[in-house]
Amino acid sequence: MVYISYSHRIITDCDFIKWVSQSQQKSIIISKMLRINVNSKEHRKQNILILEQDFDELCKDGIIKDKDTIRGGVSPFDINEEMGDLADKKLPLEALRLITGVVLTRQKPFQVVLLTTKEGKKNYLSKYSDFLEKIRNFDIKCEDEALVIINDLYRSYCSERENSR
Predict the structure, then answer these.
(1) What string of pLDDT tens digits covers the 165 residues of the chain?
(2) Is the pTM of this model over 0.90?
(3) Domains of the chain: which residue ranges?
(4) Rounded distance, CA 159 to CA 73, Å?
(5) 3-state SS string over the chain?
């Protein structure tokens, strides 16, 4: 099995997973996410994360029907385990995603990307632009931009797999 040191870790939000679930390329995208996640050298099965609250909401809404399959592509992440209990602070989920991103930038590969939709990106930038300007190794990508990131990481996996043969 080949393990890759990827250039980025990824956080997805509900809107991005909903967008992927409606894409004609859904199975291809999820398959690539699965390969990226499973073959991560530093964060095996946790290179692509989703907040536990988002994961639970997607399951409840029926967007995620097979929890075990999707867990291979996105791993539920409990920010409270990393930062102590933030739940009592009643922070919006957008803020928790950004906090998660900042926390993850302290770990290798020190680059984090949040994947969302066009509307989601506008929302993050309008509400949190001052905060985001200060974080140099954190970025937000939407829809097709997000697919570029996924495809780049997947190509890294494919290249390393070919080199190991």
Answers:
(1) 899 999 999 999 999 999 998 999 988 999 999 999 999 999 988 999 999 889 889 888 888 776 655 667 888 888 877 777 665 677 888 998 998 999 899 999 999 999 999 999 999 999 999 999 999 999 999 999 999 999 999 999 999 999 887
(2) yes
(3) 9-163
(4) 19
(5) CCCECCCCEEEECHHHHHHHHCCCCHHHHHHHHHHHHHCECCCCCCCEEEEHHHHHHHHHCCCCCCHHHHHHHCEEECHHHHHCCCHHHCCCHHHHHHHHHHHHCCCCCCCEEEEECHHHHHHHHHHHHHHHHCCCCEEEEEHHHHHHHHHHHHHHHHHHHHHCC
